[in-house]
Amino acid sequence: MLFGQLRIKFGLVLSLLALVMLSVSCHRSDEERSKILKIYNWADYIDESVLDDFKVWYKEQTGEDIRIIYQVFDINEIMLTKIERGHEDFDLICPSEYIIERMLKKNLLLPIDRNFGSTPDYIGNISPFIQTQLNKLSQPGMKTTDYAIAYMWGTAGILYNEKYASREDVSSWSCLWNPSYKGKILMKESYRDAFGTAVIYANAQSLREGKITIEDIMNNNSHEAVDLAEKYLKDMKPNIAGWETDFGKEMMTKEKAWLNFTWSGDAVWSIEEAASVGVDLAYVVPSEGSNIWYDGWAIPKYARNIKAASYFMNFLCRPDIAMRNMDATGYVSAIASEEILEAGIDTSFVKKCDLTYFFGNIPGVDSVNVNPALYPDKSVVERCAMIRDFGSDTEYVLEMWSHVKGDNLNIGILILIFAVFGVLFILSVYKRYIRYKQNKRHRRRKW
Fold first, then answer.
1. Domain ranges of the chain
2. Residue 409 pLDDT more than 50?
3. Would you identify the CATH topology of the domain 155-292+372-406?
4. Does residue 15 surpass a pLDDT of 70?
5. Greatest CA span in the chain, whole angstroms?
6. Residue 337 pLDDT more than 70?
7. Which of 4, 109, 160, 213 has the maximum number of C-beta atoms within 10 A of its C-beta?
8. How far does Cα 345 stand from its chain's mean position?
9. What is the per-residue pLDDT for 167?
10. Nearest Cα to 280, choosing from 395, 163, 377?
């Protein structure tokens, strides 16, 4: 009896000790985690020296040390899966606009903590134009710009070789369906951009007549619109040399392709690389209109260091940091300060652009010498629109994309495949027949 009571008391003591140890361990773990900032970004999408500079700046502003764990992804949906299903505790992610919208719908984002104390709030440097665009993604009770900051932005258009294609030809999406360029066209491996291009071209006449807006077209996810896109994409396919994610830049520089549907940042990189080897490339947003895209930073639901994440977002909005990231990536920052404008002026471009939509009331911004691939004229932006999240129609759009990508095989290749499988089947049957005959003889000998 006494032994039993002692055993019970001893067990209670052990349990209490275990709880104390667990509490201490959890406290230590939380304390250590508060000194770590976990960032999940696209590859090659930041000047990595900025990460080191942030640690110094964060110490100056808060008196706290911070260690950065930095990882990269190459597909929006992979990043989203890690957050939504894997509950990964990244503190910062860099999704595209439609993923920001999807995460807001699913309540997967946390609000930015803009209580920076004596530290200036640089988030106000973001262009009001882009803030307005992102806020179109807002959900009931959730304003987008309370949950995400814009990072880089750009357009989708045609990169072309001036030796083989005229600007007049490529100034319409019809060039992608022109048999003169058969086998010389590259398309981005992007179902969203492919869909957008197809529905714009299919509705070109209605756009010209003002019967419909580019925003309406880009965000009509009805089955009829998706089926129409499938038809036009299949009609385009005989001209397509390949669907690329990154090799298009090299193919264009080496003149193995003449036209490349691509994004403005990639186009600028390609133009500069090609010029160094004597190849003249140029970029244009077709007259019918196109996709305008935005990438941003956000704090996912399972983040464990909201403070450091918010400070990092603020740091990225400093004009000097924004310029460094632009130089490193080739893309255009969402920051619209005078320093950014001055850095963008390039008198080698003769045609002046109206950038009032982006830079606001800065004097002289209505007529600026800039690279139009980086900063398109107001008239170009007005014929572009953001492709939003397809929502419940995403699966149907992906099914359409699989139809487009899956019927690349012509009849000759299909016949060859069936012939190979036929020969393999005959060989398999023959081998089984020989094995059967051998076994039969063996049984006879044994008998």
1. 155-292+372-406
2. no
3. D-Maltodextrin-Binding Protein; domain 2 (3.40.190)
4. no
5. 106
6. yes
7. 160
8. 27
9. 97
10. 163
